[in-house]
Amino acid sequence: MELRSVEELMDLLHACRGAWDAPDRSGDPVDLHDHALQTAALLRRSRPADKELQVAGLVHDIGHLLRPGDDAGHAHHAADAVRPLLGERVSRLVRLHVAAKRYLAAVSPEHGLSPQSALTLRRQGGPMTPAEVVAFERDPLAEDAVTLRQADDAAKVMGLNAGVLEDWRTVLELVAARQARLGAMD
Predict the structure, then answer these.
(1) Which residues does the UniProt record annotate as the domain HD (predicted)?
(2) What phi-psi label fits residue 69: left (phi over 0), alpha (psi between -120 and 50 degrees) or beta?
């Protein structure tokens, strides 16, 4: 699935209400909707000027909705879905959020993962090898991907009010419009 409009993306994000990272609800304590809002809000607070990073936080887990039960591939499904609408950087950050988890597990084993994230880490390849760490660190988006991952890990608080999805429509429209302008220049 490729998202072609902000309206399609908003519909998908609204569908995340009551959807969980694990189909049997054994995973994280918040649904994908609240997790998305919390992740984006944390990124807005830490990197207020980086709208693309914030949007990547908002959409990073939609792959769980697109292909339920595919923990290993959820980042790829989400990245492929948002690329046409939100651009290459957002897509790459979404794709890299699992690699960033594997990276942090290798270089900072004390970095706390939720029980569900620790479980899925195995399905996603486990901690990076030393060679994978070096390759990841060379990626120009590695630092931003780690920032996204850290927000992802912190955004699992039951009952936290992180605003409403409609608050993000303007930011999504801004990022999509920028991508449309860039695409028209190609």
Answers:
(1) 34-102
(2) left
